[in-house]
């Protein structure tokens, strides 16, 4: 069984392998709050009250969360928003801004605006009825005004500028929108240019609102995920090379764009997080197994109550 510390190490050191943000005089090392934007990688429950089928607030989601409660996180326990916040000494769980249970005392230490199923392309969010990046940005602007009213303008500005912001997007654009809509009629190189441009604009909008520390997650190795293997991996469920190449192509462009932003704005501590491909490739090293099927009890997708892995601490 993989212990929580190992999982945290995987997420922090592999998923987001980079140096920690610059420190200052805060008790927790200079990070007073954590905010997250993007998709299901970071969503802690913003879809719960939306009219959408893309939800994580039903079993078996949440089976390892305290109390075994499905919270809207698209995983069995806590997700990277929570684990990174805890590792930085901020708090153990990051509430969803639209989760329905947000308290004023939660605001100064951060919330998540991420929405499962969202993407950079507005079409992606529209298809699934979830929060687009522009909607997430408007909610962040609303949050800042609430924070100012709560702690004052000077302290609110400090919190936003010293907070760590996580951003994960592009996965659903490549895996869903590009293949399931007429978008695939255009070359992927052109589509990916639009995605990178959209991400850059979103990042600069956050900068304009005072954000100065940001981790940008590259897309997952989409062709090696269980769903990708099931759809395009053949009878042996190998990684789907074309999808992986497209993800890598996008990631390279994204990294270049982030590097350009960092060079133009020296006060912007923005980094690109490494993806999980090493964990997927070397799962036995990390004591994980069952990498090829979309779930443990059949070769179909893991949807609602169709089943789940009994030994989820050993599966990925």
Automatic annotation (TrEMBL):
Pfam family, one: Lipase_GDSL
Signal peptide: 1-25
Coiled coil spans: none
Keywords recorded for this protein, A-Z: Signal
Recorded superkingdom: Eukaryota
Alphabetical list of InterPro entries matching this protein: GDSL, GDSL_lipolytic_enzyme, SGNH_hydro_sf, SGNH_plant_lipase-like
Family to which the UniProt record says this protein belongs: Belongs to the 'GDSL' lipolytic enzyme family.
Name used for this protein in its record: GDSL esterase/lipase EXL3
């Amino acid at each position: 069984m993989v212990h929580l510390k190992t999982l945290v190490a995987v997420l922090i050191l592999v998923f987001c392998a980079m140096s920690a943000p610059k420190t200052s005089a805060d008790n927790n090392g200079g990070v007073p709050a954590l905010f997250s934007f993007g998709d299901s990688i970071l969503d802690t429950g913003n879809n719960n009250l939306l009219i959408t089928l893309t939800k994580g607030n039903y079993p078996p989601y949440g089976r390892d969360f305290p109390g075994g409660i499905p919270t809207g996180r698209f995983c069995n326990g806590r997700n990277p928003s929570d684990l990174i916040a805890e590792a930085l000494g901020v708090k153990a769980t990051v509430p969803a801004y639209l989760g329905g249970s947000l308290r004023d005392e939660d605001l100064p230490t951060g919330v998540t605006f991420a929405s499962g199923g969202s993407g950079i392309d507005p079409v992606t969010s529209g298809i699934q009825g979830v929060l687009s990046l522009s909607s997430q940005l408007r909610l962040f602007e609303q949050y800042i005004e609430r924070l100012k009213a709560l702690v004052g303008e000077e302290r609110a500005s400090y919190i936003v500028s010293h907070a760590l912001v996580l951003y994960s997007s592009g996965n659903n654009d490549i895996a869903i929108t590009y293949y399931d809509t007429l978008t695939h009629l255009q070359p992927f190189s052109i589509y990916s240019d639009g995605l990178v441009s959209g991400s850059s604009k979103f990042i600069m909008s956050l900068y304009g609102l005072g954000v100065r520390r940001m981790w940008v997650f590259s897309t997952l190795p989409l062709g090696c995920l269980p769903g990708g293997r099931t759809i395009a991996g053949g009878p042996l469920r190998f990684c789907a090379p074309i999808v992986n190449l497209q993800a890598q192509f996008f990631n390279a462009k994204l990294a270049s764009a982030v590097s350009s932003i960092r060079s133009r704005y020296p006060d912007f501590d923005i980094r690109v997080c490494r993806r999980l491909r090493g964990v997927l490739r070397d799962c036995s090293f990390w004591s994980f197994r069952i990498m090829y099927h979309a779930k443990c009890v059949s070769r179909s997708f893991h949807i609602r109550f169709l089943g789940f892995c009994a030994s989820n601490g050993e599966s990925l």
